[in-house]
Amino acid sequence: MLELLDSCDSRRFRASEIQINPSFDTSSFMAVAAVATASPSSLIYTRPSSRSGGRIPGSARRTTAVVMAAGNGGGRRMPHVLTVAGSDSGAGAGIQADIKACGALGAYCSSVITAVTAQNTVGVQGVHPVPEASVAEQLRSVLSDMAVDVVKTGMLPSVGIIKVLCRSLQEFPVKALVVDPVMVSTSGDMLAGPSTLSGYRDELFAMADIVTPNLKEASALLGGMSLRTVSDMCSAAKSIHNFGPRHDHAKMYFSSVSCCDRENYHALRGSRVNTRNTHGTGCTLASCIAAELAKGSPMLQAVQRAKTFVESALDYSKDIVIGNGPQGPLDHLFDLNTHAHTAGARSFEANDLFLYAVTDSGMNRKWGRSIVDAVKASIEGGATIVQLRDKEAETRDFIEAANACLEICRSNGVPLLINDRVDVALACDADGVHVGQSDMPARVARSILGPQKIIGVSCKTAAQAEQAWADGADYIGCGGVFPTTTKANNLTVGLDGLKAACLASKVPVVAIGGISAANAGSVMQISVPSLKGVAVVSALFDRECIVTEARRLKSILMDSSSHAKLSV
Ligand SMILES: Nc1ncnc2c1ncn2[C@@H]1O[C@H](COP(=O)(O)OP(=O)(O)OP(=O)(O)O)[C@@H](O)[C@H]1O
Ligand SMILES: Cc1ncc(CO)c(N)n1
Ligand SMILES: [Mg+2]
């Protein structure tokens, strides 16, 4: 059954439409799985009114804390996750996993310790809950001062501690709450008694934005319900959803994650990594979701990125040997070892797509400019991201040009992507790649480049957008919107096709194809929140003065996006 889920990629389908018959076969499953429905991913940071019964107590105090933080020199704010969890002396799971996972994804992680456990790769030797008053004191210290974005929970060893946490969250509300209802360790040892079930079901879930039980925990939460088939998992996710959280997420053993919200059930494909080092994968997954939410990702993108991170970490760590027991930890910081980090590189933000400059070697030749001068001018005029596109260059020349452009981009804080050539991106440690439908699949590019690099995918349809998200893309480029001479034989999708893809996309979208100062305004005015900007080639590089054209485009985009906001 799980194999079948894996092979159906990640199409969304309604839980109510799934019927598994005893002679379950792949083709019927695929047909059901292809029933796509609208994306619901925009609700994340809106707190349900039931959570606080109207006014949120303590919100005034929190606002003060934020203002004070901003007033403290006006420095850079870091996305901040607070983990409320137990310590794992072996450091593969619990607080230690959470801090490493958040750090690896660029979020600051503070920690409130609920229990001290003695654990190693053999199992759990001891569990010592921290007194409730101390948990309350730690929560107050962090939440009253440190402008936490997202709270993630792990081991909560008693109902008393769950209640303490709920009270703190009412006093100091945060943008999102990720609940990993830890009950049994992977070695099979109890970490929280059955008495905590009611604490989760009756109190904490109502405040959660996402719940991440593993199969055993999901089953325990549902009174021992057996969870063997896909339809069992769908109904379990729905039932857990009914306890309160708006996005539920029932993990499936080993290689698949399923995720369900009010209307849709999303199956995420995963590849199973053959390793004994899986201790702490659940804590890591939940922490990565929290880190991504803190960074501003929509829920489904956060889940997909978390899944990609866990798989990359498992793959990297599959052969490491720590301890003599049956279950070793994974190395969360693998990316520090595998990828050289150049100063100035930074993670992707959706607004980077606002004015996206795509270079063209033919146009540079025509106007007698070097690629470096062209890139420099586009950035001076306001380009927010640059993609080097050269279909003819020799590999060596391409790397040399990319290195030179990277220096300019880095010194201006503008990400540089390479079209198509993952090898070139790797060779110069560019910020990422943009791939088309016939290039290297995004999923493969992701596994080569690691979780931090930016990956964009050209898409024309909602189905391609869905696949790009499932493959771990950071954004999609949708088009050609209008006919263009830059790309021969390119089917255009028009503003209607663009709108349909934007409505379906779970990742940010940049429009591309025939866009210029004359029509950029009409593109932005389709006013779909996932559309973050326009990508241009000739409108910048086939003009006499790139700086002037970039400035003109930028001011049109700013006018039309403020206009679009006003008219919503
Ligand atoms: N061997 C593996 N290969 C690929 N993915 C895996 C593997 N093991 C676990 N995962 C993924 O890791 C995530 C968490 O797994 P699981 O539900 O088993 O965690 P858990 O039992 O809560 O772990 P822990 O309690 O040790 O933190 C899921 O997305 C799962 O698909
Ligand atoms: C402290 C702690 N939290 C969570 C887990 C997950 O199994 C664990 N093993 N230990
Ligand atoms: Mg777990």
Automatic annotation (TrEMBL):
Molecular function (Gene Ontology), one example: hydroxymethylpyrimidine kinase activity
Cofactor dependency: Mg(2+)
Gene3D superfamilies named among the record's database cross-references: 3.40.1190.20, Aldolase class I (3.20.20.70)
Residue ranges annotated for the Pyridoxamine kinase/Phosphomethylpyrimidine kinase domain, each copy included: 88-326
Catalytic reaction(s) noted: 4-methyl-5-(2-phosphooxyethyl)-thiazole + 4-amino-2-methyl-5-(diphosphooxymethyl)pyrimidine + H(+) = thiamine phosphate + diphosphate; 4-amino-5-hydroxymethyl-2-methylpyrimidine + ATP = 4-amino-2-methyl-5-(phosphooxymethyl)pyrimidine + ADP + H(+); 2-(2-carboxy-4-methylthiazol-5-yl)ethyl phosphate + 4-amino-2-methyl-5-(diphosphooxymethyl)pyrimidine + 2 H(+) = thiamine phosphate + CO2 + diphosphate; 2-[(2R,5Z)-2-carboxy-4-methylthiazol-5(2H)-ylidene]ethyl phosphate + 4-amino-2-methyl-5-(diphosphooxymethyl)pyrimidine + 2 H(+) = thiamine phosphate + CO2 + diphosphate
Domain of life of the native organism: Eukaryota
Keywords, ordered alphabetically: ATP-binding, Chloroplast, Kinase, Magnesium, Metal-binding, Multifunctional enzyme, Nucleotide-binding, Plastid, Thiamine biosynthesis, Transferase, Transit peptide
Cellular compartment(s): Plastid, Chloroplast
Ranges of residues in domain Thiamine phosphate synthase/TenI: 355-540
Pathway: Cofactor biosynthesis; thiamine diphosphate biosynthesis; thiamine phosphate from 4-amino-2-methyl-5-diphosphomethylpyrimidine and 4-methyl-5-(2-phosphoethyl)-thiazole: step 1/1; Cofactor biosynthesis; thiamine diphosphate biosynthesis; 4-amino-2-methyl-5-diphosphomethylpyrimidine from 5-amino-1-(5-phospho-D-ribosyl)imidazole: step 2/3
A Gene Ontology BP annotation from the UniProt entry: thiamine diphosphate biosynthetic process
InterPro entries: Aldolase_TIM (IPR013785), HMP/HMP-P_kinase_dom (IPR004399), PM/HMP-P_kinase-1 (IPR013749), Ribokinase-like (IPR029056), ThiamineP_synth_sf (IPR036206), ThiamineP_synth_TenI (IPR022998), TMP_synthase (IPR034291)
Signal peptide (UniProt feature, chain positions): none
GO cellular component assignments: chloroplast
Function: Essential for thiamine biosynthesis. Bifunctional enzyme that catalyzes the phosphorylation of hydroxymethylpyrimidine phosphate (HMP-P) to HMP-PP and condenses 4-methyl-5-(beta-hydroxyethyl)thiazole monophosphate (THZ-P) and 2-methyl-4-amino-5-hydroxymethyl pyrimidine pyrophosphate (HMP-PP) to form thiamine monophosphate (TMP).
Family the UniProt entry places it in: Belongs to the thiamine-phosphate synthase family.
Cross-referenced NCBIfam families: HMP-P_kinase, thiE
HAMAP family: TMP_synthase (MF_00097)
PANTHER family: HYDROXYMETHYLPYRIMIDINE_PHOSPHOMETHYLPYRIMIDINE KINASE THI20-RELATED, PHOSPHOMETHYLPYRIMIDINE KINASE
The protein, known as: Uncharacterized protein
